[in-house]
Amino acid sequence: MKAPIYIFAIFVSSIAVAQPKLADKIVGIIDDRYISLSEVENQYQQYTYQSTAPVPADLKCQILDNFLIEKLMVRQAILDSVVVTDQEVEQSLDSRIKTYSGMAGGLAKLEEYYGKSILEIKDEFREPIRDNLLSNGERQNIVKDIKVTPSDVINYFNGLSKDSLPYFNSEIELGELIIYPKVNDQVREYSKQRIQEFLQRVKNGENFASLASAYSDDPGSAENGGELGFVNRGELDENFEAAAYGLKKPNDISDVVESAFGFHIIQLIERRGDKINVRHILIKPKITSYDISKAGKLADSTYDLIQSGRYSFSLAVNKFSEDEDSKNNGGMLQNPNNGSNQFEASDLGTFDQSLVPATDTLQVGAITRPIVFRTKRDETGFRIIYLKSRTKPHQANLKDDYDKIQQMALQEKQLVAITNWINERIEKSYIFVAPEYQDCRVINKWINKEQ
Hints:
Blueprint: H1 14-17, E1 26-30, E2 33-36, H2 37-50, H3 59-79, H4 86-104, H5 107-114, H6 118-143, H7 150-158, E3 167-168, E4 171-179, H8 185-203, H9 208-215, H10 219-222, H11 238-245, E5 257-258, E6 263-272, E7 275-283, H12 289-307, H13 313-320, H14 324-327, E8 342-344, H15 345-351, H16 355-359, E9 371-374, E10 380-390, E11 394-395, H17 398-427, E12 431-433, H18 444-447
Antiparallel strand pairs: 1-2, 1-12, 3-11, 4-8, 4-10, 5-6, 6-7, 9-10
Helix pairs in contact: 2-3, 3-6, 4-5, 4-6, 7-17
């Protein structure tokens, strides 16, 4: 079975939206589930818009094949009582809206492309996403008990021709230990008093927007009187969002709220369903040079503890590191492209360009001296980088690449299981495929069993 070449998603480009509307019709049926021409065309338009690769001649056939497989999976998932909660659907919707609004240039642009509000877009794609999650759940049911033994891995590897052996570029595994300067208690208390003063001034009748423009430490919103514009749930700091959505009527004012950014007071402007528009005043406790110096000294001391052998890197991470994402992984960085701890040079540069020069000459097993860096919030931090491993470019072999080959063998075994499962279900299902797709090789398995 050929793997899908497109990504199921809810974003259709402005180019696709601009296409003349086609008269819709049914192009595929699995028992009581239907696939429409518009579903296939929308996926085709999305692929051709987003992909830089040549468009396969049978792309629409492959899209229909994937839809038929998904409908088959969904039907069985329901029979097998696969559970997909409303919360899971909403989380997937929110995640995809966030991703594709970023691609479109913001929520307003996404709405413009569709000619619909975000709420209307969500309503349109809620059921397709539920089906996608059900299909994934059934797929996991099929492969959940499949494992590969060492002999399976060896046989798989030995069955590969020399020409088909993958070539692996140099990869490194990196860890980091991060220490952030902390706001001292005096500065924090002073900032809290200032925001409380502004809260009182607003209660005494002063204009909220004017105060935000003059005093807020959020430059992005201060120039707009503190206004953030419409946002959806899940897009704001958790504490800030809870306070903002707790406001009931326009012009209601929150109490003082502490977020990861500092202290706020919030004024509700308007609510539209799950979307909310507020303005705020932020007073951000300032990191002083003393705080930075203190953090730097702690980083130097931590470096000395590791270098002297009193602490291993992982033990030092557990005790001193202040980055929760890497701390929970023993300090090891995770490659977002594949979920592993291995980075090729191109991956590392995309992940964090500053790590490339920091590790170019670092020896395996060594650590860097504390390096000053800037966070995504443009804050100062100190980090110690640890190089756990570095491989040389090479053709795959069992000694160096057992884990990767094991994963390849497992995927091959899973693919066979899913293919067999599909063929067995085809035998028991009513299937219809529109005539214009029946000459496609990838559709043959459906045509031969059509009833």
